[in-house]
Design brief:
Layout lengths: L3 H6 L13 H4 L3 H4 L1 H20 L12 H12 L3 H14 L2 H15 L15 H38 L4 E6 L2 E7 H21 L3 E2 L9 H6 L5 H11 L3 E2 L10 H30 L2 E3 L18 H23 L10 H6 L2 H19 L2 E3 L1 H9 L6 H10 L5 H9 L6 H9 L5 H9 L9 H4 L4
Helix pairs in contact: 4-5, 4-6, 4-7, 4-8, 6-7, 8-9, 8-15, 9-12, 12-13, 12-15, 13-15, 17-18
C-alpha cells in the first residue's frame, strides 16, 4: 500500500476533481487554499501582530523590534515551506489545536533566533478566531485578486476581441426560440462584455473585513493589561496593514458579511457565464458557429465527424457547482449561535473549492472561445430563410405614414405562414405609402436590417 502522503499527492487518487482530473488547471489555487497555505497565513498574522505590538508605545515591556529583527521575523512566513507545515501539523497532533500549534511553531523559530524573551507576546490577548478570520479573508482576497480576477479579465478581453471582429456580421436573432429582428454576432457577444465588465469593476473595488477584538469582541484582555492603549486605533491600523478593513463591532467571530458579498459577486458572474455558455452551445448547434479542429482529438467514440462544444459544457457544469457551494456558504456563514459556533469553521474551509470550480469554468470558456469562428455562409442561409423578420420594419413604416392598423395587416400576412422575398415584395408593392418609403422596403433584406448594432460594440 502507498503511504498516506503519496495518496494525497497522486492526482489519480484524489477525491476532488479539482485535485485530480483538473489539477493542472487549478494547481495555482493551492498556494492560497490548501492546508499548507492556511498555516502560512496564520503564521503571517501572528508574526505581523507581534511586530505591531512591539511598535506600540503603550507597551513598555515589549521593546520595538529593529528593522533587522523585523526582517528576521517576517522571514519565518516569507520562507515558509512544506517542512514547516509538517512541523506545525506534528505539534497539532500533540496539542489537538491548530492555532496553538502555530504559536508553538513560532516559539521554536524564535528560540533559534535567541528570542525566548518574546514568547509571552506571541498570540497576546487573542482568541483563535482573531487569527483565523484574518487568515481566511487574506486567502480569499489574494486568490481573488491574483488568480480569479485576471482569468475573468482574460475572458472579457477575448469576448471583446470577438465582438469587434464580428461587429458587422449579421445573424438571425431568436426570441422565445422563434425568428426575430436580425442582429450581429458581435453585438450579441458585446452584451456579455458589458455585463461581465460591470461585475469585474465591482469585484476590483470590494474589500473584505477583519476582526481582531479578542474572545468576544470586547478587547477585554487587552484593555485589562493596557488600559491606556487605544486598542480600536491599534486594531484599525493593524488590520489595514494586512490589506483588509477593520470591523470593530463583532462577537467572537467576524460575521462574514463582506466575504459573502464577494461570493455573491462570483455567483452573479457565474450566471452570466452560464448564459454565455448556453448561447454559444446553441449557436454551434444551429451551425452558425464552427469549431476549429484539434489534431488527434476525438469528438465521439463512435461518430468520427463530431466536434462537440465540450469546453462550454464543462464550464457550465463547473460554474453550476461553484454557485451551489457559494450559495450554501452565503446562507450558512452569516448565521452563528450566540457568540459563535463551529459550523462556520468547517464550512469556510471549502471556500477555495467553490472558487476553484468557478476558476475552472473561466479557463474552459477561454479554451472554447479560442476554437470558435463564425460560419458566414450558414448565417446568410439562415437569414434568407426568414424574410418574415422584415414584418416589423414594414409595419413601422406603415405607422409612420399614418396607417392605424399596420400591426394587424402584417400579422394577417405573416403569422403562421411561409414568407419569402417575393411575397414580401408583392405585399409592399400594394401598400399605399410614399414611393420613397416603398422603394426602401423593397430593397431591404434581412442581412441589412440590423439597426445600429455595429455601433453598440464601442459603447463604454
Amino acid at each position: 500500500m502507498p503511504s498516506k502522503e503519496s495518496l494525497v499527492s497522486e492526482p489519480l487518487k484524489a477525491i476532488s476533481p479539482l485535485d485530480g482530473r483538473y489539477f493542472k488547471s487549478t494547481e495555482s489555487l493551492s498556494e492560497y487554499f490548501s492546508e499548507h497555505a492556511l498555516i502560512r497565513y496564520r503564521t503571517k498574522v501572528e508574526i505581523e501582530y507581534l511586530i505591531s505590538l512591539s511598535l506600540e508605545n503603550g507597551i513598555p515591556e515589549l521593546k520595538p523590534f529593529s528593522k533587522k529583527d523585523q526582517q528576521k521575523l517576517r522571514k519565518i512566513y516569507n520562507s515558509f515551506n512544506l517542512d514547516d507545515s509538517k512541523r506545525v501539523k506534528a505539534i497539532e497532533i500533540a496539542t489537538n489545536h491548530d492555532v496553538k500549534a502555530v504559536e508553538y511553531f513560532i516559539r521554536e523559530k524564535l528560540e533559534k533566533l535567541n528570542k525566548k524573551r518574546i514568547f509571552p507576546w506571541i498570540h497576546f490577548a487573542l482568541t483563535s478566531e482573531d487569527v483565523n478570520n484574518l487568515s481566511y479573508s487574506l486567502m480569499w482576497q489574494e486568490a481573488f485578486k491574483n488568480e480569479f480576477l485576471p482569468t475573468l479579465n482574460d475572458v472579457i478581453k477575448k469576448l471583446k476581441t470577438i465582438s469587434k471582429q464580428f461587429s458587422k456580421t449579421p445573424m438571425l436573432a431568436l426570441t422565445h426560440g422563434q425568428s426575430a429582428t436580425p442582429t450581429t454576432f458581435g453585438k450579441e457577444i458585446s452584451v456579455f462584455v458589458h455585463r461581465l465588465n460591470r461585475q469585474h469593476t465591482y469585484m476590483k473595488g470590494h474589500t473584505l473585513l477583519g476582526k481582531f477584538g479578542g474572545a468576544t469582541g470586547t478587547w477585554a484582555a487587552h484593555s485589562l493589561a493596557y488600559p491606556k492603549v487605544n486598542w480600536l486605533r491599534f486594531t484599525k491600523k493593524f488590520v489595514t496593514s494586512l490589506g483588509l478593513e477593520a470591523n470593530l463591532v463583532t462577537t467572537q467571530i467576524e460575521p462574514h458579511d463582506s466575504v459573502i458579498e464577494s461570493y455573491h459577486s462570483i455567483i452573479r458572474t457565474d450566471n452570466i457565464l452560464i448564459d454565455l455558455c448556453r448561447d454559444i452551445w446553441s449557436y454551434v448547434s444551429r451551425g452558425i458557429l464552427k469549431q476549429k479542429k484539434v489534431p488527434g482529438e476525438v469528438g465521439s467514440s463512435t461518430m468520427p465527424h463530431k466536434i462537440n462544444p465540450i469546453q462550454f459544457e464543462n464550464a457550465e457544469g463547473n460554474l453550476g457547482l461553484a454557485n451551489a457551494m457559494l450559495g450554501h456558504l452565503s446562507n450558512k456563514l452569516p448565521i452563528s449561535r450566540m457568540q459563535r459556533d463551529l459550523t462556520d469553521s468547517t464550512t469556510l474551509r471549502n471556500q477555495g473549492i467553490a472558487m476553484g470550480y468557478s476558476y475552472l469554468g473561466c479557463k474552459n470558456i477561454l479554451k472554447g472561445l479560442k476554437r470558435i469562428t463564425v460560419n458566414n455562409s450558414k448565417m446568410k442561409i439562415e437569414l434568407n430563410e426568414h424574410w418574415e423578420v422584415l414584418a416589423e420594419a414594414i409595419q413601422t413604416i406603415l405607422r409612420k405614414t399614418g396607417s392605424d392598423n399596420a400591426y394587424e395587416q402584417l400579422k394577417n400576412m405573416t403569422q403562421g405562414t411561409e414568407i419569402t422575398q417575393s411575397s414580401i415584395v408583392e405585399f409592399v408593392k400594394l401598400l399605399h405609402i410614399p414611393k420613397e418609403e416603398k422603394d426602401k422596403l423593397i430593397a431591404l433584406t434581412p442581412e441589412e436590417y440590423i439597426g445600429i448594432a455595429p455601433k453598440l460594440i464601442d459603447i463604454k
